């Protein structure tokens, strides 16, 4: 009996650990198997993967990653400062990918529609955007987005 109990305890512990390591992008996968490889290798295989990894990067405040995964033709002068202030001012609380067009491994362009919820100065907000992505060499990059209210 004692043995079984220990196994049960281990199982519970593992489940809790898994929950703690869930990727902030809401994929249901652990961070290790989801956005972390993108953050380390800058090689998101699809536009959606890049979109999710950029959302997680906002959660973690990975300013350089957000800057470097913006298409070079769309890196505005103040981009880094803007990203940094968004990371500081908002607490992102959830992501939902609603629709995607192309953006797969063999595509050159892609679009992803998403909803991201956040808290700013104690108030809940919702950011709805249709983002455009372009392949740049082997990697996907963010071009720009149309904010939908
Ligand atoms: Zn993720």
Describe the protein.
Strands 1-2-3-4 form a 4-stranded antiparallel sheet. Helices cover 38% and strands 32% of the residues. The model has no long low-confidence stretch (mean pLDDT 90). The protein is globular. The chain is α+β, with helices and mostly antiparallel strands and 149 residues long. It has one domain (30-147): Nuclear Transport Factor 2, Chain: A (Roll). The protein has helices at 2-20, 36-41, 47-60, 63-68, 79-89, and strands at residues 91-102, 109-120, 123-136, 139-147. The N and C termini lie far apart (58 Å). Bound molecules: zinc ion. Zinc ion (ZN) binds next to α3.
What kind of oligomer do you see?
single chain
Instruction: Provide the CATH top-level class.
Output: Alpha Beta
Count all strands and give the number: 4
Average predicted local confidence, pLDDT: 90
Principal-axes geometry comes out as globular
Q: What is the domain total for the residues?
A: 1
Fraction of residues in helices?
A: 25-40%
Strand line-up in the sheet with most strands: 1-2-3-4
Rg over CA atoms, rounded to whole Å, is 18 Å
Examine the secondary-structure arrangement and name the CATH architecture.
Answer: Roll
Q: What proportion of the residues form beta strands (DSSP E)?
A: 25-35%
CATH topology, which one?
Nuclear Transport Factor 2, Chain: A
**Ligand identities:** zinc ion
């Amino acid at each position: 009996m004692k043995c079984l109990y220990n196994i049960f305890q281990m199982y519970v512990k593992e489940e809790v650990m898994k929950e703690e390591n869930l990727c902030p992008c809401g994929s249901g996968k652990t961070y290790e198997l989801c956005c972390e490889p993108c953050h380390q290798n800058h090689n998101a295989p699809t536009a959606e993967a890049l979109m999710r990894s950029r959302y997680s990067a906002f959660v973690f405040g990975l300013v350089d990653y957000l800057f470097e995964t913006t298409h070079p033709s769309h890196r505005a002068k103040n981009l880094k400062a803007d990203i940094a202030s968004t990371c500081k001012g908002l607490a992102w609380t959830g992501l939902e990918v609603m629709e995607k067009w192309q953006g797969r491994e063999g595509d050159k362009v892609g679009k992803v529609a998403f909803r991201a919820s956040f808290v700013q100065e104690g108030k809940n907000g919702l950011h709805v955007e249709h983002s455009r992505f372009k392949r740049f060499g082997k990697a996907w990059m963010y071009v720009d987005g149309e904010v939908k209210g």
